[in-house]
């Protein structure tokens, strides 16, 4: 707990490092995730997709064009091809050669050290990705959330309903960016399978926070890229702040 600007007590909020500490290091790379751990984030947020030969890989866009020195769709490239790409230089030359991590590499490196907020990115492009993610977690006993902080989220609601069936003990999040997904009816439907409701921060109000809590869900909001946005979300008493800059969310600052 930390003092807020009015001198009162500030609620404990999970500090989620969006795609790693993406403001400071190349997104979805070990360099970024390690930095997030050093910055005392509670969770790292990762985007999971699938290679042509069926390996789960951690990258945000559905093409490699923006964040690597290659071109093409993630799903059209083999793991070997994806691994040969430089996912660091675009951010800064000091990160040259940072590879695209696999999902299993991330689980093995970070579980027990930091929470992992796993986003299934465009799961409709990758049939069977839910089962594959579930298997990787089960293999490591990470389907028992009492031991580890694992959350699975997506903008694809159907995929999250399926994930909830596959891993009933793992918290599920729905990501939304439309006002139409914040109606009472929509929230009630989400609460039948989700534990987290995660809207973009422009859609958050104190009323929405209360409504989400009254349905026994928690609320995490994204993507915070300014101290003002972080402070606003603290004031509205969200449960998690998903930020490119973990220091904006750190109560010690
Ligand atoms: O965790 C929330 C956030 O990651 C959703 O948007 O586009 O950054 O994956 P995006
Ligand atoms: Ca994401």
TrEMBL record:
<dbReference type="GO" id="GO:0008081">
    <property type="term" value="F:phosphoric diester hydrolase activity"/>
</dbReference>
<protein>
    <submittedName>
        <fullName>Glycerophosphoryl diester phosphodiesterase</fullName>
    </submittedName>
</protein>
<dbReference type="InterPro" id="IPR017946">
    <property type="entry name" value="PLC-like_Pdiesterase_TIM-brl"/>
</dbReference>
<dbReference type="GO" id="GO:0006629">
    <property type="term" value="P:lipid metabolic process"/>
</dbReference>
<dbReference type="Pfam" id="PF03009">
    <property type="entry name" value="GDPD"/>
</dbReference>
<keyword id="KW-0732">Signal</keyword>
<dbReference type="InterPro" id="IPR030395">
    <property type="entry name" value="GP_PDE_dom"/>
</dbReference>
<feature type="domain" description="GP-PDE">
    <location>
        <begin position="13"/>
        <end position="253"/>
    </location>
</feature>
